[in-house]
Amino acid sequence: MGVADMMVSGCVDDEIITHALGSCLGVTVYDPIARVGGMIHVMLPLSAIAPDKAAINPCMFIDTGVPKLFFECCRAGAVKERLIVKVAGGACACGTHKDYFNIGERNYQILEKLLAKNGFTVAAADVAGSKSRMLSLEIGTGIVKVTAHGVVSKL
Predict the structure, then answer these.
(1) Which residues pair with 31 in a beta bridge?
(2) Other C-beta atoms lying within 10 Å of the C-beta of residue 86
(3) CA–CA dist 154, 95 (Å, integer)
(4) Which of 94, 99, 3, 98 is nearest to 44 (CA)?
(5) Rounded CA separation 36/76 (Å)
(6) What is the reported pLDDT for 101?
(7) Most Cβ neighbours (<10 Å): which of 65, 67, 83, 125?
(8) Which residues does the annotation mark as catalytic?
(9) Could you give the CA distance from residue 135 to residue 143 in angstroms, rounded to a whole number?
(10) How far apart are CA 58 and CA 51, in angstroms?
(11) What is the C-alpha to C-alpha distance for residues 129 and 107, in angstroms, rounded to an integer?
């Protein structure tokens, strides 16, 4: 799965993977009873900066893409009240330079506000820092893994 992309599945043999999560966020939602889940790789916090781009691809932005992810998971058979949210990314991908825009941090802040407004919290997260991450979700088990610098950990 690529940047500004989303995937949803109810097939227990599927694994959804996204790479290169720097300041972007990878957000997974999973219903353990229906065994339906999805992932989105969002780039920016708010669609107000480019409403025309959000209209074409809502997955670019937290405020338009994350609701779409929840909607599509429910459409595939998940129940909203059972969805578990896990997140990775939100790093300062600037290396040794100052990140004046704080994109990674702002992405995570906006996500938390959006989730709280809708009665959700993040169950597990691997965010911030300066490392790029890979994120995967196994649909059959709900296991979410983060890989950074060759080290794999479960969320």
Answers:
(1) 36
(2) 25
(3) 25
(4) 3
(5) 7
(6) 67
(7) 65
(8) 24
(9) 11
(10) 9
(11) 14
Q: What is the pLDDT of residue 102?
A: 85
Tell how far CA 106 is from the center of its chain.
14
The domain 5-154: what is its CATH number? 3.30.1330.200
pTM score of the predicted model: 0.94
Question: Mean pLDDT in each 10-residue stretch from start to end of the chain (155 residues)?
Answer: 97 97 96 98 96 96 98 98 97 62 90 97 95 96 96 94
Give 10-48 as a DSSP string: --TT-EEEEEEESSSEEEEEEETTTTEEEEEEE-BS-GG
Structure tokens, 57: 């691809």
Q: Where are the domains of the chain?
A: 5-154
Note the pLDDT of residue 22: 92
From the list 27, 37, 23, 45, the residue with the least C-alpha distance to 113 is 45
Mark residue 58 as left, alpha or beta (left: phi above 0; alpha: psi -120 to 50; beta: remaining).
alpha
Residue pair 137/30 in contact (Cβ under 8 Å)? The answer is: yes
Residues 6+ apart with CB under 8 A from 101: none
- The whole-angstrom separation of Cα 26 and Cα 65 is 11
List all residues 6 or more positions away from 118 whose beta carbon is below 8 Å from its beta carbon.
70
